[in-house]
Amino acid sequence: MARFQVVGATVADGSGRDPANVSVTVEDGRIAGLGPGSASGERLDADGLTMTPGLIDAHVHLGLASPIEPQFSFRLSVAELAADIFATAGSALDAGFTTVRDTGGIDGGVVSTIAKGKVRGPRVLSCGPVQCQTGGHGYYGAEWEPTELWNSHHIPGLCALSMQSGNANELRSNVREAFRRGASFLKLCVTGGVVSAHDQLTDTQFTVEEIAVAVQEAAARGTYVTVHAHNNEGIRNAIEAGVRCVEHGTDIDESTAALMADRDVALVPTFAVVEHLLRDTARTGLDESIRERVQGVRERMAGALAVAKEAGLRIGLGSDLIGPAQHRRGEELTLRANLETPMEALVAATKTNAEILGLSGEVGVLAPGAQADLVLWNGNPLEDPRLFSDPANAVVVVQAGRVVKDLR
Question: I want to staple 252 with a disulfide (CB 3.0 to 4.6 A). Which of 98, 195, 304, 368 is the partner?
Fold first, then answer.
């Protein structure tokens, strides 16, 4: 469709303003206008539906779409890993997510294959492999496995979970390699993690000087560093080094939040993965012992969210789903709506996430000139945010002006 109009929907444009009944005109893949309908162009009837911008998930792991431990113990074929990755990309689109930021696990071949339209999927921004400290979070080799064998788990062009660095020079070399492979930003692990084999949540990883090397290399390419971080010491190290975003932020306190606000560091909390691990750890392909590490994280992350809101931080939204059950990505909005309001959750998943990703005004809003990414929902998820959780409620998905899903 070169030009068409969506008529009859209640439109929530992503700005946080109250929804309005307006027609949306799409021309050549972009939004040409919002207002009264006209007689020109084809019409897409959306009576009784609610329109939002295409959703954005700022923390995905498409490359971890198979059971985790089998994937890293050579028990799954490359063909099966690829099938799971591309099926997960398609399910993200079907759930209403037209843009995602992959925060570790895929190689550049996945991004380009989706962008070429060879498989269904959202627009993908990727850091490529995560940068991790030798033996730190992001390393899933066996304890007996020599560190130098870790790269044998990478599949060029498909998936590469992490690169390990033992010092600043190795980190500089690894981030340059990540950019060579097509990374558009960098992610470092600066604390231990929930889903870790060799560390604790209280551990800090990488020094300020080491993190600053990655920041310097990212700045040289006009981009930024985000960090996996749970504890305040690790977050503060990263802020001092100049990072622009924090993932998870489980234990953020008032003083750390104030420092983040002063340096304009954004936060992307991740609640859905916690719920998923508590409900069914085994299905992710991880040992049941992980459940013990998850206990209490949900409550602490909710407290950190409240502290961050009080400090006035930019707060995005990310699901962090791992393993084969990633189809209910919209549950992150449902969970956030229970802690804030449905409108605040929607704005986090659209306008704010676009700002964090460096795509402000391009995606995440329904406004003239923006990419025509939009979702038509069965019912009103701003009145019943549980609707976000079920992909069947995203009855129409439009990406860059193309209807990529239509269940009407």
Answer: 304
The answer to whether 3-53+363-406 and 55-329 have equal CATH topology is no
Question: Does residue 224 contact residue 244 with C-beta atoms inside 8 Å?
Answer: yes
Tens of pLDDT, residue by residue over 17-60, are 999 999 999 999 999 999 886 656 799 999 999 999 999 999 99
Q: Across-strand partners of 41?
A: none
**Cβ-defined contacts of 218-223 (< 8 Å, 24+):** 218/175, 218/185, 218/186, 221/179, 223/184, 223/185, 223/186, 223/358
Pull the structure tokens for residue 234. 């690790």
249 close to 309: Cβ distance less than 8 angstroms: no
Dist CA 377 CA 357 (whole Å): 24
pLDDT in tens, 323-370: 998 999 999 999 999 999 999 999 999 999 999 999 999 999 999 999
- Is the CB of residue 333 less than 8 Å from the CB of residue 381? yes
3-state SS class at 22? coil
> DSSP string covering 98-157, please?
EEEEE-SEE-HHHHHHHHTTSS---EEEE--SEEEETTSTT--S-TTS-GGGGGGG-BTT
| Rounded Cα gap, residues 8 and 99, in angstroms | 25
CATH code, residues 3-53+363-406:
2.30.40.10
Assigned fold of 55-329:
TIM Barrel (3.20.20)
Give me the pLDDT at residue 197, please. Answer: 72
CA 357 to chain centre: 10
Cα atoms in the 13 Å half-sphere on the side-chain side of 380: 13
Query: For the chain, what are the domain ranges?
Result: 3-53+363-406, 55-329
Is residue 123 a contact partner of residue 363, using CB atoms and an 8 Å limit?
Answer: yes
Please determine, for residue 294, whether its predicted confidence score (pLDDT) is greater than 90.
no
